[in-house]
Design a protein that fits this description.
There is one protein chain. By secondary structure, this protein is α+β, with helices and mostly antiparallel strands. It folds into 4 domains: 169 residues, Multidrug efflux transporter AcrB transmembrane fold; 73 residues, Roll (Pdz3 Domain); 72 residues, Alpha-Beta Plaits (2-Layer Sandwich); 171 residues, no CATH class. It has 11 helices and 25 strands. Strands 1, 2, 3, 4, 5 and 6 form a 6-stranded antiparallel beta sheet that branches. It has a 6-stranded antiparallel beta sheet with strand order 15-16-17-10-21-22. Strand 15 and strand 16 form a beta hairpin.
Length: 531
């Protein structure tokens, strides 16, 4: 059989697809999953299911490296770690013992949907319910938080007064289990003259008196750390010296900000600052926008500055933990601020990714209630039966195609090639899914809708291949084949914009890759057999 250009294209495409599918098995990601924590362990917020990727500044390719490194640790020694992409650590409970046990973890081959592969269920008990929250609202926020960090298959439901959280295998619930109280504030140092300081907010100026221990305003007296309000702005007394008073003016919190539509944010290296910069674009409501202008507009230019910087710092917090501290350019006052990027810089990529993830999660809603997540229990996917069914169905399609072509055209070799056609196309569909998973945590998960789409496409591919054989052997169905294929792809594209988008993706990519690569290859073979 002569190898034409299409044959070489298909061979190359098959090799690329095979590499995409097999490379996660050959080069799986490093990291260790925490499987148990002893009662006396001192590991902060470390929980079962968390993934440790680095310890004491060194990577952890496998369990042997973990136990080799922990073997040199002395009792009471603190060992820093990178946990779930952020900072963490454990204090040794004894020489060579950190009080935790781990197992190897790697992404492995193709991430399957939770409805097919099952996962882990956490029972989240509400130990103290906030006045303005309900279990249903908490479940909705938890679901949105997982969506925000790319765990699309996770879901949360109210069960017997608690919240049942269902996660794919290997995902940690700790990444969303924190209050998520956001604060953006301007910090300024105001001069004390004879025990009096002045703060300008919007068009008005307020006088504060300081006696060395307390601040007195028209509304009352406050100590360091207390919060008072002036012209609708909450102000915290942060610090003092003999000549100045430092105050922190809140500009917005969770209620006044939301993630900008279509804005995913980013983490990128900035050569100028020699740091990794995280950024999440947000939109301010009208009240927060006005407060931003009033607070920032009340700052004086920094004395001696030639770069147009105001005498103050812009601070971002999540749960009172500082995320970043930024200088404020005077150019920001040129127009009302309706949108802004919550941003900051870190020396390492891991820390920048971790802080961006904190913001992504917190922006989906604050949880004021006290929650307690119990250990996970494995559960089976409701649609797990679809995998063996799909295998039998695809084998049936290939067998039916082999029998049909062999019976109609009396050619066993051509029938063998025909039977391979839908198999190749399905390999290409899975390769596309694997590539998307490699590129993004939000990649195409192979769930029950995808499997249903693959089965539907396989059935259509049988019809296509028979029609193509007729076209090559007897010059029939040429126009009908093209029209049906294009209509099938169009249906796939349309469905990909619905809740059944993964079903549509399987139809679309199967149809496109088959029409562009596999079917022309088979047509060329069928034409050679006819000659």
């Amino acid at each position: 059989m002569k190898m034409g250009i299409r044959s070489w294209i298909v061979l190359f495409a098959v090799l690329v697809a095979a590499w995409c599918l097999m490379s996660p098995l050959l080069f799986s990601s490093t990291g260790l999953k925490v499987v148990s924590i002893s009662g006396g362990a001192s590991c902060g917020n470390l929980r079962v299911g968390d993934v440790i990727t680095s310890m004491a500044g060194s990577g952890l390719p496998n369990m042997e490296d973990f136990y080799d490194q922990s073997g040199f640790v002395k009792k009471g020694e603190r060992v820093p770690m990178v946990v779930n992409g952020g900072p963490g650590g454990c204090t040794a409970v004894a020489d060579g013992d950190l009080g935790i046990s781990v197992e190897d973890v790697g992404r492995g081959w193709l991430r399957l949907g939770i409805d097919v592969a099952g996962g882990e269920k956490f029972a989240v008990r509400i130990t103290s319910l906030a006045d303005d929250e309900t279990p249903t609202k908490i479940a909705e926020i938890i679901k949105r938080r997982f969506d925000a960090i790319g765990v699309k298959d996770a879901y949360a439901v109210v069960e017997d007064g608690a919240v049942g959280v269902y996660l794919p295998k290997g995902e940690s619930i700790n990444s969303v289990m924190f209050p998520g109280a956001i604060e953006c504030a301007a910090e300024q140092e105001v001069k004390l003259l004879d025990g009096t300081a002045k703060i300008r907010i919007g068009g008005s100026t307020q006088s504060l008196s300081w006696d060395g221990k307390t601040v007195t305003t028209v509304n009352g007296t406050y100590k360091i750390g207390d919060i008072f309000e002036l012209d609708g702005v909450k102000i915290r007394v942060a610090n003092f010296t003999n000549s100045s008073l430092t105050v922190r003016e809140t500009i917005f919190d969770n209620g006044g900000v939301k993630k900008l539509e279509g804005g995913q944010g980013s983490v990128a290296y900035d050569a100028k600052s020699v740091s990794y910069v995280f950024s999440v674009p947000v939109e301010l409501d009208d009240e927060s926008s006005k407060r931003f202008s009033d607070v920032i507009g009340g700052l004086e230019p920094l004395y001696g500055s030639t770069s147009g910087v105001l005498n103050g710092l812009l601070l971002y917090y999540v749960d009172d933990a500082e995320l970043s501290k930024l200088s404020i350019p005077s150019s920001i006052l040129s127009s009302p601020v309706k949108a802004i990027s919550m941003t900051g810089g870190e020396r390492t990529m891991d820390n920048a990714v971790y802080k961006k993830k904190l913001l992504d999660v917190a922006l989906e809603g604050k949880i004021a209630s006290a929650l307690d997540a119990k250990d996970a229990a494995a559960f089976e996917g409701k649609m797990s039966w679809m995998l063996p069914f799909a295998e039998l169905f695809l084998a049936g399609c290939a067998s039916a195609l082999f029998i049909a072509v062999a019976a109609l055209y009396r050619n066993i070799r051509l029938a063998l090639f025909a039977a391979v056609v839908p198999i190749l196309e399905i390999i290409f569909i899975l390769a596309v899914a694997e590539m998307s998973q490699s590129l993004s945590a939000r990649g195409w998960v192979v769930d029950s809708a995808t499997i249903a789409g693959i089965c539907a496409f396989a059935a259509f591919s049988v019809l296509q291949t028979v029609m193509l054989t007729e076209k090559a052997a007897r010059s029939r169905f040429s126009k009908l084949y093209t029209r049906l294929t294009l209509a099938f792809v169009a249906v796939g594209i349309a469905v990909s914009f619905t809740p059944l988008n993964r079903f549509g993706l399987a139809l679309m990519f199967g149809g496109l890759l088959g029409y562009a690569i596999v079917k022309p290859f088979y047509e060329e073979l069928a034409s050679q057999f006819r000659r």
